[in-house]
Amino acid sequence: PLSTAANLHPGAEQKVVFITARVHPGETPSSFVCQGIIDFLVSQHPIAKVLRDHLVFKIAPMLNPDGVYLGNYRCSLMGFDLNRHWANPSPWAHPTLHGVKQLIIEMYNNPKINLEFYIDIHAHSTMMNGFMYGNIFEDEERFQRQAVFPKLLCQNAEDFSYSSTSFNRDAVKAGTGRRFLGGLLNDTSYCYTLEVSFYSYILGGPTSAVPYTEEAYMKLGRNVARTFLDYYRLNTLLERPLAPTPKTG
Q1: How far apart are CA 99 and CA 63, in angstroms?
Q2: Is the pLDDT of residue 92 over 90?
Q3: How far apart are CA 23 and CA 228, in angstroms?
């Protein structure tokens, strides 16, 4: 049967969330987080159904397949750190970046599409927990609005740390997806790098480090997806299970 989702009707405006992962081949946890997002979004979970009805998710789960195949840690087949080449990707040397960037620009220029989120998933070799990097803007209100999603995620995911989340404009990060697209897209779009620790997260006191498992990474992915429900305040649309109707005499 045809979908009744409002965002899929011809001519309807679409709110798009664009997610990418594994631009650095050695950062395997990013694939598990991305898998958690995908599995949740295509599931029959009531939250997933509401999200599919109201948002369009575009996901590129592996931006560096050649590097992954070769077992590289950070570079592509050609020896490039792809996450420094978003500003001017070559269709020959950085084909995945070039293709994704073209698609993002196409969507950005389409008046019927609101590209609202770009999230690039990575893994971090020295920090604990999950956390985000965001951009710095002169506009204070835009800066504050950008903090909303990580704050909500922190409420949903016990392993996500808002205190480790930071907003920066280091020169060394200028060619990253988050930084470049943050400069390209307008102020209704939010661009983040989602980082997750290679090894553990902390619950409670500083000594209680819990080692990450594949399942824990996927759970973080599920919690990222769930957070869009809170962000867009779609909670009221969840179909609550009906209580048994009391029999009236």
Answers
A1: 10
A2: yes
A3: 23
List b or e across 47-59, with b for residues whose CB sees 16 or more CB atoms inside 10 angstroms. Answer: bbbbbbebbbbee
Residue found by looking up tokens 């490039």 in the block: 80
Lookup: tokens for 146: 């950008």
- 158, 195, 214, 239: the active-site residue: 195
Radius of gyration of the chain (CA): 19
Say whether pLDDT at 104 is over 90.
yes
What tokens were used for 136?
Answer: 């710095």
Give the dihedral of Cα atoms 142, 144, 145, 148; nearest 10 deg: 160
- Its pTM stands at 0.91
Amino acid at 158: E
Residue 195 annotated to the active site: yes
Q: Check: CB of residue 200 under 8 Å from CB of residue 209.
A: yes
Interior CA angle at 158 toward 155 and 164, to 5°? 80
